[in-house]
Amino acid sequence: MSDAPRTPTPPPGAGGALFDTVLVANRGEIAVRVIRTLRALGIRSVAVHSDADADARHVREADTAVRLGPAPAAESYLSIERVLDAARRTGAQAVHPGYGFLAENAAFARACAEAGLVFIGPSAEAIALMGDKIRAKETVAAAGVPVVPGSSGAGLDDAELVAAAREIGMPVLLKPSAGGGGKGMRRVVDPAALPEEIAAARREARASFGDDTLLVERWIDRPRHIEIQVLADAHGNVVHLGERECSLQRRHQKLIEEAPSVLLDPATRAAMGEAAVRAARSCGYRGAGTVEFIVPGADPGRFSFMEMNTRLQVEHPVTELVTTVGGRRGIDLVEWQVRVAAGQPLPFAQQDVGLTGHAVEARICAETVSVREGARGFLPSGGTVLLLREPDGEGVRTDSGLSEGTEVGSRYDPMLSKVIAYGPDRAGALRRLRAALAGTVTLGVPTNAGFLRRLLAHPAVVAGELDTGLVEREVDALVPDGVPEEVYEAAAAVRRAALAPAERADGWRDPFAEPSGWRLGGEPLVPAFALRVPGCEPVLHRPRGTARVEVDRVDVTLDGVRHSFDRAGEWLGRDGDAWQVRDHDPVAAALTGAERAGADSLTAPMPGTVTVVKVAVGDVVEAGQSLLVVEAMKMEHVVSAPHAGTVTGVDVRPGSTVAMDQVLAVVEPAAPPGEAS
């Protein structure tokens, strides 16, 4: 299933002619996915890239490519002027924005029109209207769509937001009025925490969307997140293509999506679909879009509008795989974005649309997954892809922007690829996706593939008993407790094999140079290896099993059980999990500062940029008090005091770029009560 399913072509003469050349104003897996459909339609594709992506997969797969500028997104992918110049230089007639970056930027859509380019998406007016969550709620409510109770009016200051939250009643949800994707959203339970949470939400919103306007809504306990895919043309036709369940989230970021939802019966599905169509009509929508609803699990009929995403969604493949049009399964939403933008009408009506089977998608992100290793749980990661194996086969599709040698940094979104599985029923789709994730190998960059495989096997997920808080509640059960012994066994086997003497041209090998551990008159002395997985304590491992070491594979047998690993450099992987096992040198570690001052040091949990420094040398702090904020891949991480004490060192300032494990500050513990300082 390497290609997206195709939709029947409209009859000759229906609508406008397709474009000759389309510029894809994005990167990564979505750019590759759009280019694939353009190629199938016979349309020349133009890729754009920053210096960081000069050799990226989307650049190599496009028909032509244009450099936009240096790595920072503001100087490349977010530069409207440079994107339009690239379109002019390559003769593009239209621009596909993908998602993220400029996809929901009304100014970009307007600039395309002024430059004589077709923006493959809705009008600038629709983007602006639905991009403002406050105006969007007012507009759809006027069209008869139920909405979540919350604050009213735009531009509320901090005091007004606090007052609105107290009036609504705790807990509440703070949300940026602009943008989407969960950025800047914060659940607040304690009224006293509102000022700090509002400040943090504004920072994230400003960094992600350039707009720190917030609204506040009533928090719905154990909600489900269900969205409806809509498709509209310029001739007044609007249809919905059923729903997607997106309730498996962490920090308001979707992890797993599926279609259809096990929660909805036909009547509720029809009602939500009709509400989504009304929402689309209320803003004069054109193209592919998604209307998102929050749904009480105990009463699905009381669904409420959250927002409308005026673009293609990350999770669109599950809809493509289960949708039938005129009895034929499969629709290519990118193709219909292009056809609608070219002026073609939809050749089918709502009664022609159906659903068959089940599809589930997992988002593979560059992420270090561990809650048992101090502050290093669920943090953005990076590195170079050393070994890549992406699943395919019956019922499996992978949308990816990766290739071996890809450099994954902290400047862009951490999502690397998506693995999607289709089956005749939900159980079959889940089984296929778990197997596909087990076969996903991305060595050199830590990912969440293994975590997602375990999540899909959780009893509540298998039973379809989902809500947006499930992952947070069950996270401890989904993350391994430490590094398995067989990982160290495999790493030691690789090192032991490297000690073996070289074979001469005539095939002879010096037997006395073999690392066998043989000793005269005694038991063999097996060499021990000092090893360390980042974030874990170092170990001294002495191999006790048997092993077979190959260039890209290691098999070890412990206690009669064989364990097989993929291998690339210091990296070992299996079943979607991966470990970087380094040689441990305590002297070198101390000199680099990674272990300096022990528990008194606050180190960077990820490579990124320091955005906030709240303390100075000499300040007295409490245990758990937030001291600094580090941002990477559009995610903020608060660095807190490990204990009460006095700040004796601050090594960074706002704007400082830091590496993982770099010392940020030092807090000297307070003297115990009754003890002289």
Key features?
17 helices; alpha+beta; globular; 8-stranded antiparallel sheet; disordered N terminus; 677 residues
Short description:
This protein is an alpha+beta fold. It has 17 helices and 41 strands.
Q: Explain this structure to me?
A:
The structure is a single chain. With 677 residues, this protein is of the alpha+beta class. It contains 17 helices and 41 strands. Strands 13-12-9-10-11-17-24-22 form an 8-stranded antiparallel beta sheet, sandwiched between helices. Strands 3-2-1-4-5 form a 5-stranded parallel beta sheet. β10 and β11 form a beta hairpin. α4 packs antiparallel against α5, α7 crosses α8 and α12 (426-438) packs antiparallel against α13 (449-456). The longest helix is centred in the middle third of the chain and has 17 residues, at 266-282. The chain is globular and about 90 Å long. Mean pLDDT is 89; it is low at 2-14, 371-376 and 593-597.
Write the layout of secondary structure elements.
Layout: E1 21-24, H1 28-40, E2 44-50, H2 57-61, E3 64-69, H3 80-90, E4 94-96, H4 106-114, E5 118-119, H5 124-131, H6 133-142, H7 158-168, E6 172-176, E7 186-188, H8 194-209, E8 214-218, E9 223-232, E10 238-250, E11 253-259, H9 266-282, E12 287-296, E13 304-309, H10 316-322, E14 323-325, E15 328-329, H11 333-341, E16 353-355, E17 358-365, E18 367-368, E19 379-380, E20 383-384, E21 387-389, E22 396-400, E23 407-408, E24 415-423, H12 426-438, E25 441-443, H13 449-456, H14 459-463, H15 470-478, H16 485-498, E26 529-532, E27 539-541, E28 546-549, E29 553-558, E30 561-568, E31 571-574, E32 577-580, E33 582-583, H17 586-592, E34 601-603, E35 608-613, E36 620-621, E37 626-632, E38 635-640, E39 645-650, E40 657-658, E41 663-669
Parallel strand pairs: 1-2, 1-4, 2-3, 4-5
Antiparallel strand pairs: 6-7, 6-8, 9-10, 9-12, 10-11, 11-17, 12-13, 14-15, 14-16, 17-24, 18-19, 20-23, 21-25, 22-24, 26-27, 26-33, 28-29, 29-30, 30-31, 31-32, 34-41, 35-37, 35-40, 36-39, 37-38, 39-41
Helix pairs in contact: 4-5, 7-8, 12-13
